[in-house]
Amino acid sequence: MLAEYGFYTVASGANEETELRVWTAMVAGVAALGTAAPAFAQLYPIPQSYGQVVPTSPISDPWTQYKARLTALARQQGVRETTIQSVIPGLGINRRVIALDHAEPQANSGGTPSMQPYIRTHVTSSLIDRGQSNYSNLYSGLRSIESRYGVDASILLAIYGHETSYGRVTGSNDLLEVLASMAYGGRRRALFEGEFIAGLKLMDQGVPRYMLKGSWAGATGLPQFLPSVALRLRADGDGDGYADIWRSELDGLASIASYLRDAGWKPSVRWGVSASVPINLNRSALRTTLTASKCPQVYKRHTRWLTVREWRALGVQPYSAVLPDSEMATLFEPEGASGSGYLLTTNYRAILDYNCSNYYAMSVGLLANAIARR
Description:
Blueprint: E1 9-10, E2 18-19, H1 23-34, H2 40-43, H3 62-76, H4 81-87, H5 95-102, H6 116-122, H7 125-137, H8 139-149, H9 153-164, E3 173-174, H10 175-185, H11 189-204, E4 213-214, H12 227-233, H13 249-262, E5 272-276, H14 296-299, E6 306-307, H15 308-313, E7 317-318, E8 328-332, E9 340-344, H16 346-354, H17 358-371
Antiparallel strand pairs: 1-2, 3-4, 5-7, 5-9, 6-8, 8-9
Helix pairs in contact: 1-5, 5-10, 7-9, 7-17, 8-13, 9-13, 9-17, 10-11, 11-12, 16-17
């Protein structure tokens, strides 16, 4: 769940999203950077003028100096001294995650790739079958979460399946070491310093250090939240009074629901519906005139908003009557003017908030439909 930070896709480049999990490019980048890893401390020294907090005593080693900065920042943010001393002095640099961050593929100028290959690898029979099994096994808890947050249970399971393969792959990296390393040598220092402090605050709230494991990009737990999101939106889904997004599936699912509700999820409304689109539809007249504040190239592929009734009048016919005529929707044609497309509701936008990629959001919606046997 790293939408707003652009980890899984590069959504702000010259063209549409480039999937970050293009591991061949990343491996090549890491290989190229590997021999230069010892030089990262020299490449990214901490200037004395950076920010407002500087060490009070001269320290020659840049990493030690940077840890002194993190210590001062943590104290400013009210982190307990026992937490600070249990973590920061022993922190090492994870040069691998810095290399991965610098090897992140950038958007290219070769146009928008087809969505179908991505869908085939992210809406698989395994994910569908295991999602349906989880739906049956967790049915009572899921219904309770759905009633509480108003979010479709199949959407929760689809995100859970996409993010961690239903809890199988949550990441084994030391989360605080990753965050400190990314802040020190990565490209988003302010972001990761804040996330590092948030990780310390999770410890202040009782989360043990050994539980704070995650991805190389700093996401943790079953919902793959960044620490600041975990602090704000994790939720208790199993009724034991504690929101444990690392070990409790229902807590993880409730936390995803909490996130989507916070992102504007509208209860009892589907994310979208497939539709036939006239080849001669005047698409230029339907282009949006708005520019999104984030991920503009993702939203640029959507038309302006019309009611379903207005879409029908233009010849765009939903294949099923799951959306009322009064519902607002935008048209998205993943493969271009091919005669098929999707009418998307504001709930699709909530999924985009979780991960700002049309590839991701469409695959979540389609996987959810398959899990619910729609």
